[in-house]
Specification:
disordered N terminus, 9 helices, 12 strands, alpha+beta
């Protein structure tokens, strides 16, 4: 098994009270492995102290991990039991951006954020993220918005967040296609080992994910004060803001930014103040149907 490497991580988590054990358990449960180098980077410790700390944890929680000599890392076990439940959303944010949320202990000047995001189950998210990080497959029960409930064997490779919901991109072995799934629609995960990832399931064959796509955005032409919208887009002398993404992410970004994607810019310019200026270059993308006004005649 070839373990992936990760860049430096911040040393604060939520209220800056994340204990050493929490970091170990976060990495073990959501990544599936933990190396001495992870502890050295996160806590700025020398190798001797990091080794001693890991040894101490292993003695207290012998069933949570086993040491792999070939990988030079501790590996998650099926007998794992976390001392503290770490929210799945925190792990997904770290996996997606490499950033720990930090909570400032002081006065705030905004009301509590309100959204429709659901609390994700660590027991359902953890197996999926471990499969993604380690390059394995996973058997899940999934409820689709178009085809209903089904059992799937998936090989996940990427995650992203849009509209307050967490998604993952995976190869579906049943239909031999790459597709986009929502974490909150997983209804069950099997802990059984599935066949290792084949070449067909490699993310490099996910053409839609790998193909760069440019979104050219500008102020809505029917807005009475386009100069204000230009400031919103960070435009000075240029009249277009180009965003480079991929074919899968493009419609999600257009939706999140409230971009008018109609052919005749017929959406309300106050509700959708940005205009997609190169619609003819992206209207062939399958996912564009979710973009604001795309199907409007």
């Amino acid at each position: 098994m070839n373990l992936p490497s990760f860049g430096p991580e911040t040393t604060q988590y939520l209220n800056s009270e994340l204990a050493f054990d929490d970091i170990i358990e976060l990495k073990l449960f959501y990544w599936g492995f933990l190396s001495r180098e992870d502890i050295c980077k996160h806590f700025n410790l020398g190798k001797v102290k990091a080794s001693a700390a890991l040894k101490s944890y292993a003695e207290l929680h012998p069933r949570n991990m086993v040491y792999s000599t070939s990988d030079r890392a501790y590996i998650w076990t099926h007998e794992f039991h976390a001392s503290t439940a770490i929210p799945a959303e925190i792990a997904l944010e770290l996996l997606a951006s490499g950033i720990f949320p930090i909570k400032y202990q002081g006065p705030v000047f905004s009301p509590e954020a309100i959204g429709l995001a659901l609390n994700l189950s660590p027991e359902l998210v953890g197996p999926m993220t471990r499969a993604m990080v380690l390059g394995n497959g996973i058997n899940i029960d999934y409820v689709s918005g178009t085809s209903g409930a089904s059992h799937k064997t998936l090989y996940p490779h990427s995650i992203f967040k849009s509209g307050g919901a967490w998604y993952f991109r995976a190869y579906d072995a049943g239909n031999r296609q790459f597709r986009t799934f929502r974490f909150n629609r997983i209804s069950g995960c099997e802990q059984t080992i599935v066949p290792e990832m084949t070449d067909a399931a490699s993310s490099r064959h996910d053409t839609e994910w790998q193909t760069p796509t440019v979104l050219s955005l500008g102020p809505h032409p029917k807005h009475p004060h386009p100069e204000a919208l230009a400031l919103d887009l960070g435009l000075a002398e240029n009249s277009v803001r180009n965003i480079v993404t991929n074919q899968i992410m493009a419609p999600f970004i257009l939706t999140d930014l409230r971009v008018d994607c109609s052919k005749d810019t017929s959406l309300d310019p106050y509700e959708y103040p940005i205009h997609l200026m190169n619609r003819n270059e992206v209207d062939h993308l399958d996912g564009m149907v979710i973009s604001p006004g795309f199907n409007r005649k």
